[in-house]
Amino acid sequence: MDDILPLIALGAVVVLEVAVVFVAFWLLLAAVPLALVGFVAMFLGTYLHQVRQTMVISPPAARHQPPREPAAGEQPAYRQYFFSQGWADLEQSVGAAAGRCQVLTVQLTNRIVKSCFRGDAAWLVWPFGIVGVAGVGVGATGGAVALLVAVAVHAVLVGVAHVICWCGIALLRLIDTALLRLRGIRMTCGACHHRVPYPAYECPGPGCTLRHTDVRPGRYGVFRRFCACGTGMPTLLLLGSHRLRAFCVYCGEPLVSETGTAPEVMLPLFGATTAGKTRLMLTLVRAVSDLSAAASAGFEFADAETERRYRELLPALEPGRQTRQTVVGQMPRAYSVYVAPPAAVRRLVHVFDVAGERFVRRQRTEELRYLALARLYLFVLDPLSIEPFWRHLPEVHRARLASFRAVQPPEGLFVQTCEQMQMMGARTRRSRLAVAVSKHDLVCHLPPFAGAASDSAALERCLVRDLQLGNLVRTMRREFREVRFFATAAMLDREGGVDASVVALGRWLLDGEGLAMRETA
Ligand SMILES: Nc1nc2c(ncn2[C@@H]2O[C@H](COP(=O)(O)OP(=O)(O)OP(=O)(O)O)[C@@H](O)[C@H]2O)c(=O)[nH]1
Ligand SMILES: [Mg+2]
Ligand SMILES: [Zn+2]
Ligand SMILES: [Zn+2]
User: Fold this and answer.
1) How far is the C-alpha of 169 from the C-alpha of 218, rounded, in Å?
2) Which residue, 234, 261, 275, 462, could crosslink 380 as a Cys pair with Cβ 3.0–4.6 Å?
3) From 270, 273, 278, mutation site for ligand 1 pocket: most ligand atoms within 8 A of C-beta
4) Interval 148-159: pLDDT, tens
């Protein structure tokens, strides 16, 4: 009997074991698909949780910290999300989710091994352990595949967004460029006279002076960009960047306010030293301002610097006072004003008045880049510098007028400057030329000006017939599309009004640029 008992026990164990294996086998069939579903859900859930964590709940520090002193090609701004952080977030989410899933899988496996393969009941429950391990194996493999698919979808979404951004960038730039072209807007630096492709802008953030040299849509932002200080700014003129402080990308000098909102008119004055350019420029600006007021047109200084310099020079127009010789010095700065007649497009007028000395030497003229960009020129011709006129003046007048007399004779100076301008690329044959025969108040009572009509044709006849300037006038007519002569007295009357001759010149200059001024009642 004693021999049978162990045999019975062994038989029972074997039966039990077979029953457990049998149950485990059937359990395996159900457990594997369940584990697969469970693991896929767990892996995907973990990934989504990590994505949310990275993008919303606790975003990591920006991968590309904006440099405060950017190297060439860099900007002091945060990169646009899909150009930097989008990929960093993807990497971070994948890394964190994969780590978490691995930890969960290992923990589960350890628990199964511990409870099914170790301990006192291991001899009985080991088949369930195998079921568990198989389930974890299959589930983890399925979960990993699902994770890979999710990562791929995420990467594709970021990639597509990246491509959409590039398309948006290209489209916005195209529209902005097309609109600027259509409106005939170009931007010229008043200080260095370069055409500026796009201004640099100073960050509008309080206390921030960081300059963004290329704000246009790109990797730093499509519609807006964020400065290193966190302040947002528009990326295009079209989107409102004209409200920011603009600077020249070549020389760093400030550009006029609202740069890029109005087509430009360049008006270079040229002529000999002491010909009367500065005085004429001052009275001309004054005349345009008066004409604008009478026509209810807008007139404003385009930058504080123009207003300051203009106001500084203005006292020279008071009776008995003279303008001082313009210094050759550094690059001459434009006087810039906005003019906006009621029925016309607002224009930005840059008037360039430089020392006559600059037209004597070629190298000095070459520096005046604006000469090549203008379509309208104002030549100031001092009648006192015309040799036949001066020669026939009685000595008493010569003594009185000697200090006002321009040194260089007009013919040589005009021809040389004109050639120089053409060499620099000026299209003079498409341009208008106003010739201001200056200081008319000083010579109007002297022959041949005395009694002569002061309209353009009469003045031209006088220059050709009486003053032997036929060659000069023919050159002017040949080299320019349209030439008009004015006898100007750059003076203010007792009431502070500009002499009618300068007003007429101002009208002609404005009319041809589509800025006609009609007096309102
Ligand atoms: N009476 C009178 N004096 C004038 C007139 N135009 C210029 N002047 C005087 O002529 C002198 C030279 O005039 P500016 O306007 O300074 O001459 P500019 O061409 O600017 O000379 P630079 O700057 O040296 O090239 C000054 O004393 C002026 O006041 C004018 O129409 N009438
Ligand atoms: Mg001058
Ligand atoms: Zn410049
Ligand atoms: Zn800033």
Assistant:
1) 6
2) 275
3) 278
4) 999 999 999 999
Q: What is the pLDDT of residue 366?
A: 85
User: What's the pTM?
Assistant: 0.85
**Ligand 1: residue whose CA is nearest its atom 16:** 323
Cβ < 6 A, ligand 1 pocket: 271, 273-279, 322-323, 325-326, 355-356, 380, 404, 438-439, 441-442, 488-491
Query: What number is the average pLDDT over the span 440-448?
Result: 91
What are residue 377's phi and psi, to 5 degrees? -130, 150
Judge contact between 316 and 323, C-beta under 8 A. Answer: yes
Contact (CB, 8 A) for 514 and 344: yes
Which of 329, 267, 281, 334 lies closest to 303, judged by CA? 334
Average pLDDT, integer, range 368-392 = 95
Side-chain half-sphere CA neighbours of 211 within 13 A:
12
Strands 347-352 and 376-381: unpaired
Secondary structure (3-state) at 12: helix
Element (H, E) at 266: strand 264-271
How does DSSP classify residue 325? P
Distance CA 494, CA 317 (A): 11
Q: Per-residue pLDDT for 206 more than 70?
A: yes
Residue 319 zone, left/alpha/beta (φ > 0; ψ -120 to 50; rest)? beta
Query: At residue 521, does pLDDT exceed 70?
Result: no
Residues 463, 207: Cα–Cα separation, whole Å = 60
pLDDT at 11 over 80: yes
Residue whose CB lies within 8 A of the most ligand 1 atoms, among 274, 325, 491, for a mutation test: 274
- Which ranges constitute the DSSP H helices of 374-409? 387-391, 395-401
H/E segment holding residue 507: helix 500-511
Angle between helix axes 470-479 and 410-423 (nearest 10 degrees) is: 20
